Amino acid sequence: MQTLISADDIQARVRSLAGEIRRDHAGDLHLVCVLKGAFMFMADLIRALPGTTSIDFMALSSYGKSTNSSGEVRLLKDLDFGLEGREVIIVEDIVDTGLTLTYLQDILRARGPRSLRTACLLSKPSRRKVDVAVEYIGFTIEDKFVVGYGLDYAEKHRNLPFIGILD
Ligand code: IMP
Ligand code: MG
């Protein structure tokens, strides 16, 4: 496993993202974590966010298998709370083709949040198929399949505290 982004670099970047997010939102923040990949990012992000926050979780799955997104997305677990009038931040692990996030933003926007913005730890712009708005990006990376810090390959490697490239 080759390290792409060290644990220290992730921690520093997550803290500065939290600062950016807080500067853009005066009131209560409602964070929506997209399971499972974003769980670690979410845990570090909320600890670095000053002020009042609430959290919720949802789980999606692409119909397509393995390392490629088909764009067909299935909702595996919906949110526990409504979004009406809330300042919502979607917390995602990575935006690749953008298909998953586009789907998610569309269904969440329909629930009437006051604002809806997205924080992604990673972005692979060279893979984008749809132009999706991501207000907060941790790191822009090349087209390599990465694991660790929540991200998996076949459910493995989520526990790594750094982002690595699989051999
Ligand atoms: P998209 O719909 O192509 O943007 O796919 C986004 C989803 O694919 C992410 O939420 C991840 O679950 C998964 N994914 C995309 N690239 C990677 C990667 O390099 N490592 C691990 N998962 C990835
Ligand atoms: Mg994901």
As residue ranges, the low-confidence spans are: none
Shape: globular
Strand share of the residues?
25-35%
**Structural class determined from secondary elements:** alpha/beta
Distance between the termini: 6 Å
Q: Rg, please? A: 15 Å
Determine the mean pLDDT. Answer: 94
Instruction: Determine the number of helices (DSSP H or I, runs of at least 4 residues).
Output: 3
Describe the protein in words.
With 167 residues, the protein is of the alpha/beta class. The protein contains 3 helices and 9 strands, in the order E-H-E-H-E-E-E-H-E-E-E-E. The strands form 2 sheets. It has a 6-stranded mixed β-sheet, sandwiched between helices. Strands 1-9-8 form a 3-stranded antiparallel β-sheet. Helix 2 links the parallel strand 2 and strand 3. The longest helix has 18 residues, at 7-24. The radius of gyration is 15 Å and the shape is globular. The protein starts with a strand and ends with a strand. It binds inosinic acid and magnesium ion (MG).
